[in-house]
């Protein structure tokens, strides 16, 4: 039987062994999906604490390793490693390249390799394929290569890998069919697309769309504020339009490793085609300056008058979004850096983040609030009793509109 039919049969019989490379948010989410239909899953990671934690969970059919060669006999391998940007905002594909090179050295006949990491259009075909074909195995015949960008939304308990439609494509028809069959076992709706470039671009577009809209609303919010117009009321009114308007809300800026990062992959890919993405570039700039604006607002409010001799700010919420502990690219951390540069000390409270920047999360007591000159609400965690922040006269910068229509002299909206 040819390799394609053999693997398809294994998948249909729920018998393939799955390998996950990179057991982070995405890797563990794919692992959960595969486990849910009885696949045996092995995660490979370089982070020993992740390996120990996975192996200690004692979940049936799930194990983790730091030995790459253990992946050798996996039928389906999902690559879920980071694809960050450098300090100069250029895509950094070094981890992905390293993984592909290791795979090339032990690629087996009949394996399906799926890239789940977010990448710019062209990466699967122009980076991954040539590296894997150095093995002398041929895609579509000996091995299979697909791309299926991950769409998980950490902290969102309504949408999981199972009920979020999954974009899937392959380098060739057989690779695509196998990837569709694999995800089809545990994802309710598969969205097959014609090429891997369409799949890659779909993810990049989704994130860029978010960044552009978040930056747009932050820019317009600044104008509304200057004009004495309540932007939140404006958004609520605009959102009554039954078509053509999708509400986005002002805040301290978009964070995380996706929304502020992937548009730079797009900008870079477009530059290589001599296309300048002016709106995307502007949106990225607006997003980068937003934390600084919030820090400036705090400095203005302190205005040289401090309660305890040296200025201090309390950040409420340091993760980049509600109900998670992830602080990557968090605007709160950027606000912290700006304040620190201006000689302002910072303490924080976050029910999900115990320690960061050498500081420990403070209890949200009256004493903590009183000891600070300004409070900045940076993340909207449901667990926090925000009302208690109003119990003394400390000014509050409410970047998330927590207090909605409450008119209180301490509250400063953005
Ligand atoms: N987090 C999200 O919300 C999200 C959503 C969709 C897509 N993505 C994309 O998925 C990819 C992974 O993101 P993530 O959030 O899971 O990242 P993560 O940092 O949570 O996990 C990545 C894992 O890869 C491991 N790793 C790093 N270098 C490695 C190497 N050389 N070999 C093996 N493992 C290595 C890390 O130790 C970590 O456990 C990225 O491309 C990201 O853009 C993330």
UniProtKB/TrEMBL annotation:
The keyword NAD applies. InterPro entries: 6-PGluconate_DH-like_C_sf (IPR008927), NAD(P)-bd_dom_sf (IPR036291), UDP-Glc/GDP-Man (IPR017476), UDP-Glc/GDP-Man_DH_C (IPR014027), UDP-Glc/GDP-Man_DH_C_sf (IPR036220), UDP-Glc/GDP-Man_DH_dimer (IPR014026), UDP-Glc/GDP-Man_DH_N (IPR001732), UDP_ManNAc/GlcNAc_DH (IPR028359). GO terms for biological process: polysaccharide biosynthetic process. SUPFAM superfamilies: 6-phosphogluconate dehydrogenase C-terminal domain-like (SSF48179), NAD(P)-binding Rossmann-fold domains (SSF51735), UDP-glucose/GDP-mannose dehydrogenase C-terminal domain (SSF52413). The keyword Cell wall biogenesis/degradation does not apply. SMART domains: UDPG_MGDP_dh_C. Coiled coil: none annotated. Gene3D superfamilies: NAD(P)-binding Rossmann-like Domain. Pfam families: UDPG_MGDP_dh, UDPG_MGDP_dh_C, UDPG_MGDP_dh_N. Residues 314-405 form the UDP-glucose/GDP-mannose dehydrogenase C-terminal domain. One of its GO terms (molecular function) is oxidoreductase activity, acting on the CH-CH group of donors, NAD or NADP as acceptor. Belongs to the UDP-glucose/GDP-mannose dehydrogenase family. This is UDP-glucose/GDP-mannose dehydrogenase C-terminal domain-containing protein. The lineage of its organism: Bacteria, Candidatus Curtissiibacteriota.
């Amino acid at each position: 039987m040819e390799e394609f039919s053999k693997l398809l049969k294994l998948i249909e019989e729920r018998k393939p062994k799955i390998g996950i490379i990179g057991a982070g948010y995405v890797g563990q989410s794919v692992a959960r999906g595969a486990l849910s239909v009885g696949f045996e899953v092995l995660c490979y990671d370089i982070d020993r604490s992740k390996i120990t934690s996975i192996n200690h969970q004692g979940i049936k059919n799930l194990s983790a390793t730091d030995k790459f060669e253990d992946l050798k006999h996996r039928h389906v391998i999902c690559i879920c490693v980071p694809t960050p940007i450098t300090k100069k905002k250029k895509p950094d594909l070094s981890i992905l390249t390293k993984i592909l090179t290791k795979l090339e050295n032990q690629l087996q006949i009949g394996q399906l390799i799926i890239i789940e990491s977010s990448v710019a259009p062209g990466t699967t075909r122009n980076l991954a394929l040539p590296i894997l074909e150095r093995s002398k195995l041929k895609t579509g015949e000996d091995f299979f290569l697909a791309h299926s960008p991950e769409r998980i939304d950490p902290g969102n308990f309504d949408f999981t890998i199972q009920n979020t439609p999954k974009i899937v494509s392959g380098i060739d028809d057989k690779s695509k069919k196998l990837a569709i069959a694999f995800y089809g076992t545990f994802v309710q709706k598969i969205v097959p697309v014609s090429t891997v470039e369409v799949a890659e671009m779909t993810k990049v577009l989704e994130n860029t769309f978010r960044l552009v809209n978040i930056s747009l609303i932050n820019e317009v919010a600044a104008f509304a504020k200057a004009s004495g117009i309540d932007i939140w009321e404006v958004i609520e009114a605009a959102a009554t339009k039954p078509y053509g308007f999708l509400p986005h809300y002002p805040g301290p800026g978009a964070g995380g490793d996706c929304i502020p990062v992937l548009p730079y992959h797009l900008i870079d890919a477009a530059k290589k085609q001599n296309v300048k993405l002016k709106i995307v570039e502007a949106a990225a700039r607006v997003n980068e300056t937003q934390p600084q604006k919030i820090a400036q607002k705090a400095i203005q409010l302190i205005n040289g008058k401090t309660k305890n001799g040296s200025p201090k700010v309390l950040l409420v919420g340091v993760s980049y979004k509600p109900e998670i502990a992830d602080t990557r690219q968090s605007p709160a951390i950027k606000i912290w850096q700006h304040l620190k540069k201006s000689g302002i000390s910072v303490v924080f409270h976050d029910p999900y983040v115990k320690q960061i920047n050498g500081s420990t999360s403070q209890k949200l007591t009256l004493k903590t609030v009183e000891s600070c000159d300004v409070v900045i609400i940076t993340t909207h965690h449901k667990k926090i009793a925000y009302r208690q922040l109003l119990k003394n006269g400390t000014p509050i910068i409410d970047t998330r509109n927590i207090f909605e229509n409450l008119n209180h002299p301490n509250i400063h909206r953005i």
